[in-house]
Design brief:
The chain has 170 residues and is of the alpha+beta class. The protein contains seven helices and six strands.
């Protein structure tokens, strides 16, 4: 990626904040736990590129599937990676939450993670889990996604930001 392309990507990332996602996040953080689990947000729809990558990793074609988040996952991100996060404060800027859709649409790499026993396939096996990484401004936005075959959606279960090991350029 050239310097100009890289600067363009940074500007696009910063401009991509989804105000509706931020409103939903704020509402969810104010809800009780039962209500959080019932609340969902649709970030985007899986395109052909994401579907092909997902299929190559876990054998599931997801084109056209909504990319969703359940309220309790927004709470997880805040408690684990927010301003007072137990692990880090990488998502302390709420705008980064509002940029999850951009990060997923523009991922640079995808990797399979251990299956997630909190989610089950139709045959009651632990569900596949995928990590999408998107490099932005010397960091990587990392989103963990479970392709839910019974609901036919991509469920974002976590997101965080890490410094990249090789610096700013892709």
């Amino acid at each position: 990626m050239t310097e100009l392309e890289y600067e363009k990507r940074i500007a696009e990332y910063r401009a991509s904040t989804d105000a509706e996602a931020l409103k939903w996040r704020a509402a969810v953080l104010a809800m009780d736990e039962k209500s959080q689990k019932k609340s969902f947000y649709r970030f985007a729809v899986a395109d052909a590129r994401m579907s092909e990558a997902t299929h190559s990793i876990v054998g599931i074609a997801t084109e056209g599937w909504p990319i969703m988040m359940q309220g309790n996952h927004a709470v997880h991100i805040e408690k684990r990676h927010g301003a007072s996060g137990a692990q880090d404060q990488s998502m302390s800027n709420p705008d980064d939450f509002g940029r999850i859709a951009f990060a997923l649409r523009n991922f640079d790499s995808i990797a399979r993670l251990p299956d997630n026993p909190s989610y089950r396939t139709r045959d009651n096996a632990a569900a596949a889990q995928i990590e999408f990484r998107t490099r932005i401004d010397g960091t990587s936005v990392i989103s963990t996604v479970v392709p839910d075959t019974s609901r036919r959606w991509m469920l974002v279960t976590s997101a965080r930001i890490e410094k990249t090991k090789t610096g700013k350029h892709l």
